[in-house]
Design goal:
Elements: H1 2-12, E1 19-23, H2 28-37, E2 41-47, H3 49-53, E3 65-69, H4 79-84, E4 87-89, H5 93-99, H6 101-106, H7 117-122, H8 124-133, E5 152-156, E6 166-168, H9 171-177, E7 184-188, E8 193-202, E9 209-210, E10 215-228, H10 238-243, E11 250-257, H11 265-283, E12 288-296, E13 302-308, H12 334-347, H13 351-354
Parallel strand pairs: 1-2, 1-4, 2-3
Antiparallel strand pairs: 5-6, 5-7, 8-10, 8-12, 9-10, 10-11, 12-13
Bound molecules: adenosine-5'-triphosphate.
Length: about 350
């Protein structure tokens, strides 16, 4: 149903006069900057004057225009106005969160990527079917808390940014901390180093790592800075702190650029390929940017604990390119890559293959 609506909306668009829009948060500076580099008009959807103001300090990342709204749900009532400006929306994590997945799914504006992916990434069981079905290794799940014999991480469903997650090493520790009124998953706590891998899949271009359809790029990678876990050792060992009731948390506050030993790159591409190929058969493909969140163990094995199916904020350190995208072209951010894809698709009459 929504596909037909988007088809009709796109048919009415002047493809030579497109506007790239997103919500002013998350990776919006990068998205606007990249869209401007590729010659698009840009529009920022913003709640509150204070949030709008700081863009004045970053002229190259400031959208050409702002659309002020009282709350994000108001976007749903403004779609006609946005359609009149031939608007294409670039969803990012905060965009989907602020609007809510149900409203996002019905948004009557062409959005970059395949919206059907949302059902597969937001449900932890479906996500596992997808990623394990693709041949990736995920941390094992503990179904019965009494079977906790090694460190685990307990994740509440729908808790964004690691909020409320905790580590337990025994059933007793689990029982002490769990809020059992909330749905949760218990997962192996993987020891190793974290790498968040930023891919870009184009179903319509053949200029990168070739897949059965289209091609794959890996534009950059980061490590998240998470409070308090990443600095907790400044005060003492985790065990010492837990004894006095201070528990580490996993709330993301920033992103750190990182480069991986080169011998691991073939595996990185293989994992990206498997994820895309499986997505093509499950729901028509994960299009554009996505991120595999991984831990590399001491045996140099990747364990993938999550997928994000759109631009992640971990790409923000790379506005002028990364040590990987520099081998594709200079000054290539993920935001710019998205704009390039839209530009290419509009020139080749293929917008429907990358928007939904
Ligand atoms: P987001 O949606 O923002 O990615 P989230 O709320 O879904 O976050 P996760 O990304 O699953 O949460 O986990 C938050 C953090 O917890 C990770 O960035 C990582 O540091 C840590 N973490 C998650 N799973 C594991 C694991 N299995 N082993 C070790 N650390 C983990």
């Amino acid at each position: 149903m929504i596909r037909k609506t988007i088809h009709d909306i796109l048919a009415s668009y002047d493809k030579n006069d497109l506007t790239i829009a997103t919500v002013c948060s998350h990776s919006s500076l990068q998205i606007f900057h990249g869209a401007k580099q590729e010659g698009f008009r840009t529009l920022g959807i913003v709640v509150g004057e204070q949030r709008r103001r700081f863009y004045d300090a970053f002229p190259l990342g400031k959208p050409d225009e702002f659309l002020m709204v009282e709350n994000y749900k108001e976007i749903l009532t403004l779609t006609k106005e946005l359609q009149d400006q031939n608007t294409i929306v670039i969803p990012h994590g905060s965009f989907v969160e602020y609007l809510g997945p149900d409203m996002f799914m019905t948004l009557q504006l062409p959005t970059f990527g395949n919206r059907d992916v949302l059902m597969w990434e937001s449900d932890r069981d479906k996500e596992r079917i997808w990623l394990e079905g693709a041949g990736l290794t995920m941390p094992y799940e503990v179904k019965n808390p009494k079977d906790i014999h090694n460190p685990v991480i307990v994740k509440y469903h729908g808790a964004k940014g690691g909020k409320g997650f905790f580590i337990a090493k025994t059933y007793a520790e689990f029982k002490k901390r769990i809020q059992s009124d909330k749905p949760y998953t218990i997962q192996e706590f993987v020891m190793g180093t974290r790498y968040y891998l930023h891919y870009f899949y184009s179903p319509i271009q053949q200029n990168a790592y070739k897949l059965s359809k289209g091609s794959l790029q890996m534009l950059s990678m980061d490590r998240r800075d998470e409070t308090t876990i990443d600095e907790v050792q400044r005060l003492g060992s985790i065990a010492e702190l837990e004894e006095i009731g201070i528990h580490p948390t996993f709330v993301v506050t920033g992103n750190i650029p990182i480069v991986m030993r080169e011998s691991l790159l073939p595996k990185v591409f293989q994992m990206g390929e498997q994820v895309v190929e499986k997505s093509l058969s499950l729901f028509g493909g994960i299009i554009g940017s996505f991120c595999l969140e991984t831990v590399v163990t001491e045996n140099l094995e990747f364990k993938v604990f999550e997928i994000s199916a759109r631009i992640v904020a971990g790409t923000n350190p790379y506005i002028t390119g990364s040590p990987y995208s520099d081998f594709i072209m200079p000054n290539l951010s993920t935001g710019r890559r998205i704009a390039q894809e839209i530009h290419y698709a509009s020139q080749h009459d293929q917008l429907e293959e990358i928007l939904s």
